[in-house]
């Protein structure tokens, strides 16, 4: 199969909508990461996503909608009050809610669970496409399983070339990390996966929030998994990744030492550091994250940097930790998982 990459003009959107209505897959830009979209009401189309991604069958997809009216078809019963409040505050935007599913949601989309994950993306191309198709679109990230999520059309092409007919190139993704996933239970919500909508932002709306314990820790044997995606080792570069946390000068000192050891052992090594710390590493090979000041820019650079590490066949990657608050929690969750939560504390001499 030939894979076309098109700028999302009117004609390309028509083509994408026609493919989706015919049960085919299209790579689409969203504000979080690129999605691999299919007709969200079509079981056969959803199954194609699992095949193209080589995604385990028990890892459900997210339904993407453009209007609140589309919820009725997808959920069972009324929208809970907290869900309404969150939708009002954060939709369209990078928040996914887990809700009781209706009969209309194909079994493949929710991987046999009795709940469905729903999000209303803010990206104008995703929005226009959902409108044009007149369908909810089921879409996980458009990477092959085990690869970092794609934040540029070129990443989707790397992973999906020959597997899907069309990719819409909407440029780099604004957030660059997958959506925040929340489960509603009782009068609080639980964050199963942190993202662009932070726990602090949710707390400001609902007055309370839990963050699932698996967010910054590896799963323990026998631990209940609340979101199937959490049990897979996602976002992993081919090289080994070590994260170092602590006071900035100590972190830089420790990373420089680890880097020099790796190089002296003949390994190819690289450092992922904040842009403002670049000079601390002298002649060493650094890849700065965050072309602009602030964590937003670090988040949107992270997956591209991990892909680059693979492309350049880097064997030992050393990364500076960020403070795990606000958007920093999502960054540390993704970095942590890519590193199998191998984090050294420079302040404790680790
Ligand atoms: P992706 O869009 O590739 O990030 O994948 C969707 C994420 O949403 C995965 O981590 C899933 O485990 C999670 N997810 C989707 N549906 C559900 C659900 N019904 N319950 C819990 N987690 C879900
Ligand atoms: Mg994914």
Q: How is this structure best described in words?
A:
The protein is an alpha/beta fold. It is 31% helix and 20% strand. Strands 1-8-2-3-7-4-6-5-9-10-11 form an eleven-stranded mixed beta sheet, sandwiched between helices. The model has no long low-confidence stretch (mean pLDDT 95). Bound molecules: adenosine monophosphate and magnesium ion (MG). Adenosine monophosphate binds at residues 59-60, 62, 98, 110, 113, 115-117, 140-141, 178, 181, 193, 227-229.
Any chance you could write out the topology, listing elements then pairs?
Blueprint: E1 4-6, H1 10-21, E2 26-28, E3 35-39, H2 43-53, E4 62-64, H3 71-74, H4 81-90, E5 95-100, E6 115-119, H5 124-133, E7 137-139, H6 153-160, E8 166-168, E9 180-185, E10 188-193, H7 199-206, E11 209-211, E12 240-245, H8 248-264, E13 269-274, E14 286-289, H9 295-311, E15 316-320, H10 327-338, E16 343-345
Parallel strand pairs: 1-8, 2-8, 4-6, 5-9, 10-11, 12-15, 12-16, 13-14, 13-15
Antiparallel strand pairs: 2-3, 3-7, 4-7, 5-6, 9-10
In angstroms, what separates the terminal alpha carbons?
50 Å
- What's the oligomerization state? single chain
Helix and strand sequence = EHEEHEHHEEHEHEEEHEEHEEHEHE
Bound molecules: adenosine monophosphate, magnesium ion
Provide the helix percentage. 25-40%
Percentage of residues in DSSP E strands: 15-25%
Radius of gyration: 20 Å
Q: Count of DSSP helices?
A: 10
Task: Give a quick account of the main beta sheet: strands, pairing sense, barrel closure.
Answer: 11 strands, mixed
Strand order of the largest sheet: 1-8-2-3-7-4-6-5-9-10-11
The geometry reads as globular
């Amino acid at each position: 199969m030939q894979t076309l990459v098109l700028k999302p003009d009117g004609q390309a959107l028509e083509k994408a909508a026609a493919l989706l209505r015919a049960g085919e897959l299209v790579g689409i830009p969203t504000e979080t990461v690129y999605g691999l979209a299919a007709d969200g009401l079509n079981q056969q189309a959803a199954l194609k996503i699992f095949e193209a991604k080589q995604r385990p069958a028990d890892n459900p997809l997210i339904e993407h909608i453009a209007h609140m009216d589309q919820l009725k078809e997808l959920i069972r019963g009324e929208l809970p009050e907290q869900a309404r409040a969150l939708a009002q505050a954060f939709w369209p935007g990078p928040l996914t809610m887990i809700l009781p599913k209706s009969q209309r949601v194909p079994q493949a989309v929710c991987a046999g669970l009795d709940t469905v994950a729903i999000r209303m993306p803010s990206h104008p191309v995703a929005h226009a496409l959902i409108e044009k198709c007149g369908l909810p679109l089921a879409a996980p990230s458009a990477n092959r399983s085990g690869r970092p999520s794609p934040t540029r059309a070129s990443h989707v092409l790397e992973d999906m070339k020959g597997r899907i007919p069309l990719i819409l190139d909407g440029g780099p993704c604004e957030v660059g990390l997958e959506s925040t996933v929340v489960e509603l239970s009782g009068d609080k919500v639980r964050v199963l996966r942190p993202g662009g909508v932070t726990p602090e932002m949710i707390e400001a709306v609902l007055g309370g929030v839990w963050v699932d314990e698996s967010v910054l820790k590896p799963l323990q044997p026998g631990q209940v998994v609340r979101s199937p995606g959490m049990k897979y080792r996602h976002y992993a570069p081919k090289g080994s990744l070590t994260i170092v946390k602590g006071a900035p000068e100590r972190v830089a000192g420790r990373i420089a030492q680890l880097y020099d050891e790796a190089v002296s052992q003949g390994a190819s090594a690289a450092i992922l550091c904040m842009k403002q710390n670049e000079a601390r590493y002298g002649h060493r090979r650094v890849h700065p994250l965050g072309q602009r000041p602030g964590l937003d820019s670090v988040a949107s650079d992270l997956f591209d940097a991990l892909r680059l590490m693979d492309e350049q066949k880097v064997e030992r990657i050393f990364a500076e930790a960020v403070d795990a608050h606000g958007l920093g929690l999502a960054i540390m969750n993704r970095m942590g998982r890519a590193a199998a939560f191998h984090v050294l504390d420079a302040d404790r001499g680790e």
